[in-house]
Design goal:
This protein is mostly helical. The protein folds into two domains: 61 residues; 101 residues, Arc Repressor Mutant, subunit A. It is built from seven helices and four strands. Strands 1-2 form a two-stranded antiparallel ribbon. A two-stranded antiparallel sheet has the order 3-4. It is globular, with a radius of gyration of 18 Å.
Length: 162
Amino acid sequence: MRLSIQAGDIEIDLEGATIQIDEQLAHAKAEHTWTVLLERIREARENALEAAVNAAREAGLPERGSAFRSLLENCALTRKPDQVLGAIHYLRSVEDVQDSPPRVVNQLFTDAGIEPPGNLSLYLNRLKDRNFLMVPDGHDDKNRFAILTPEGQAHLDKRSNA
């Protein structure tokens, strides 16, 4: 079996039986090669999203809705919980919104031409239960301030690579 991944000038090329690849991958993780590789991939995705926003702006498209819809399509986020997670990611990372009450999240879905989630608190609480979202200290555990956890970001990354 062979596993080969390249992102920019970082390359991981593993070969052998499954146990050997697991050992080699553990070694790459210990040397932080894997972390750097994932960061490069994350940067490329963010650059692509920024390029999509800029292209939408230049084309005169309704920037917000089309950019969010593009994120959902590119990451294959078809289930409503994944879409809500994508919405929080979009609001925090793209629009730099730190306070997103339900009306803001629902409007993002509407702008994208997608049915809003309805009972948003239910979705947010389930995402928090799955450790995909958390509310930073000092915000009285209010969902409107929820941010993605590393697990939530990894879930989106996994969906976009699926």
